[in-house]
Design brief:
The chain is mainly alpha-helical. Helix content is 61%, strand content 8%. It is flat and about 80 Å long. About 4% of the residues have low confidence.
Length: 217
Amino acid sequence: MEDSKVKSQSQEVISEQNVVILGCVNKDLIEKINKLVEEENGGKVILTSDDAVYDYVESQGQPTSRSKKSDDERLKDFLYNEKNRRYAETQALMLWNILTKKAPVEQAEVRVLSKSLIPKLTTLKEWKDINALLDFLKAFGYLQFTKDNATYEFKILFNKDMRKNAAKAEIIEACANVSDAILVYKEVLKSDFGYNKEQLENESANIKTEVNSMVKF
């Protein structure tokens, strides 16, 4: 009995000799490898992100189930992935703590932060990396830029109602931009192509149909 206990404990010790880092999206294959490594050899299987598998296969010029998805489907998968959402929340809190020196998160509703602080206070020095982080947080509703058409000032949002309102404001802003673009387009048709009232109305109807077909509710 005692020997069995000692053996079990020794098998649970993690070392470079019994750890397998695995990238795999095939559940049956994962189960077989788990049995071989963990049950039969007392090792430990660590699964990497599925993206590592997709990235490699696609880099070899081969299609994957991911590459066959539409942009909308990939965006939906990304946003609805619980791991991504938890990571976004963790990154938002970490960024807040660094930039504010761990100020209470209740202050986040009114505190405006500058992007220029990020390279000064974090390990992120390249603007492309900084922008990627901010865009990531914004995609999950944890960040709101405070200036129109500018990204140098922002708030980090933890309050759910504020995050919801910020997401709704994004929709309204996008609709306003589409409306402005339509006005410009109609003016071009009128001034440069001589469209009359009836032609403009017909083209407006066509645009409305196209826009409605692209918006997913």
